[in-house]
Amino acid sequence: MGLCGRCGLCFGAVAAIPLAVILAALFESPTVTPFAWEKVSDAASLGAADKSSTGDADEQVDPAPLGSGKMFDKIAFAYDLGNRWMSLGLDQFWRRTMIDECLRLRPDDKVLDLATGTADVALLVGARLKELAVDGASPKVVGVDPSREMLRHGVDKIRGLGLEGLIHLHQGDAQNLSVVESVMGAPAPVGALAGITSDSIDKISMSFGIRNVPDRNLALREMVRVLRKTEQSRVCILEFSLPDGSSALSKLAQLFIQQAIPLIGKIATFGKGGAEYQYLEKSIVNFPAPTDFAAQMTRSGLPVQSITAFAYGSVQLYSASVLVPQ
C-alpha cells in the first residue's frame, strides 16, 4: 500500500473516533456523584494553604508560554470553532447545565466568570438574568481573562447582542483579582473595575480554564476572598479530565482526547496552532483526577458538594459552596 493509501486509512480511523463519540454522547445521561467534602483529609483546616504543586510558572521563559494569555492570543481567531469541534458541539450544553444546575441564578446575583475567554458563559448568564427581568442598565456579570485577543472577540459578541450594559469584560489574572483592567473601550463605561473587592460576588463560574492557571491554589483562594459568605453563594467549575478507561466508551473518549484534539486544533487554526493544541491535550492528561481536584477545592475553602461527569468522564462539573461564618 502506498503512502497516500496509508494516510487515507489513518485519517479515516481518526474521523471514525469523533463519529462514534458523538453518537454515544448524544444518548448519554450526565452522572452526578455527591462528594463527601467533610471526609477530605485536613478538613478541619479548610482554607489553609494547600502545599501541593500546581505548576512551574516561575520557570517559564517563552514570551508566549503554553497555557498563558499570550498563547490564547495566538489562537483566539479560531477558538470558538475549535471548541465546537473538540466538544462535538456539546460545549454549550455543558455550560447551560452549569448555569441551570449549579449557579442557580437569582435576580440580585453579581456573577464573576473567570477564564471568560470569548464570553460564551458570560453571554449565557446575561441572557438568563434578562429572563429573570434583571435591569440591564448596570453590569451584573463580570468576565475576567488574561488574553486580550480572546476578550476582544467577546466584546464583539456582547455588543452584537446588545448586552454591554449587563456584561463587562476585564483583562486580569485569576491568581490576583485585586487588579483588573476594563477592555470595553475608552472612556471606561459604568461598571468598569480596577479590581474585584472582597465579599462582592455571589456566584463564580469558570469553564475549561482552571487547568491553565499556574498556581491553582492561589486562584481558588482568590475565589474564596471575593465571594460573599452566604448560603446562596456558589462556585461552579467545568473542566476536562482524562477518562479512566473503565468502559469501552470511556476508552473511546480517552482516545479522542489524546489523538483527535491535537489534529482538530491544527485544522481549526489552518496549521498555525499545532503546538498550542498539543499543549491542551497534555494539560488534560496531567490534570488531577476528579476526586483529587475536588479535595483541592475543599482544602482551599470551597467545599465541593457534587461532581457531574459528562462525555464518559471527559468533562467534570464541580459544584461547590463556601464556608458560611457561624
Largest sheet: 9 strands, mixed
Q: Kindly report the CATH topology.
A: Rossmann fold
Number of helices: 10
Shape: globular
CATH class: Alpha Beta
Q: How far apart, in Å, are the first and last alpha carbons?
A: 73 Å
Strand numbers in spatial order across the main sheet: 1-8-9-7-6-2-3-4-5
Helix content: 40-55%
Order of helices and strands: HEHHHEHEHEEEHEHHHEE
- How many extended strands? 9
Low-confidence stretches: 1-20, 51-61
CATH superfamily: Vaccinia Virus protein VP39
| Percent of residues in beta strands | 15-25%
Our count of domains comes out at 1
Average pLDDT across residues?
A: 78
Cα Rg = 20 Å
Secondary structure category: alpha/beta
CATH architecture assignment name: 3-Layer(aba) Sandwich
Can you walk through the features of this model?
This protein is of the alpha/beta class and 326 residues long. It has 10 helices and 9 strands. It has a single domain (3-320), classed as Vaccinia Virus protein VP39 (Rossmann fold), CATH 3.40.50. Helix content is 40%, strand content 16%. It is globular, with a radius of gyration of 20 Å. The N and C termini lie far apart (73 Å).
